Amino acid sequence: VSLSHKKHQVCTRLTRSQVTPGSVLLRWEAMLTMRSLACTTALLVLVLLPLTQSGPQCLQACALVIDPVCGTDGNTYSNSCFLDIEACENPHLNLRIDHNGPC
């Protein structure tokens, strides 16, 4: 995820049927904890992101696989999926992968 994602809320245990458009499930700090857990236990974690109500219909979930990419905006994203979400939510940025690995 872009380090600039700030719109996440506290993580709660929800089933898919409880998640509605516009639901916000994570805060960056909670994601860092989950990423550490995923790295140490080899778990696959899905991060659900909010669906914007007025903007484009962007992807809502990414696997929390740590495979960093550097965006053309100078930010490091956990993987290309998170960069794609940022690019979809902010088309004016014309965001692409600059190179694999952190910026």
Automatic annotation (TrEMBL):
<keyword id="KW-1015">Disulfide bond</keyword>
<dbReference type="InterPro" id="IPR050653">
    <property type="entry name" value="Prot_Inhib_GrowthFact_Antg"/>
</dbReference>
<dbReference type="InterPro" id="IPR036058">
    <property type="entry name" value="Kazal_dom_sf"/>
</dbReference>
<dbReference type="Pfam" id="PF00050">
    <property type="entry name" value="Kazal_1"/>
</dbReference>
<protein>
    <recommendedName>
        <fullName>Kazal-like domain-containing protein</fullName>
    </recommendedName>
</protein>
<feature type="domain" description="Kazal-like">
    <location>
        <begin position="52"/>
        <end position="103"/>
    </location>
</feature>
<dbReference type="GO" id="GO:0005576">
    <property type="term" value="C:extracellular region"/>
</dbReference>
<dbReference type="InterPro" id="IPR002350">
    <property type="entry name" value="Kazal_dom"/>
</dbReference>
<dbReference type="GO" id="GO:0030154">
    <property type="term" value="P:cell differentiation"/>
</dbReference>
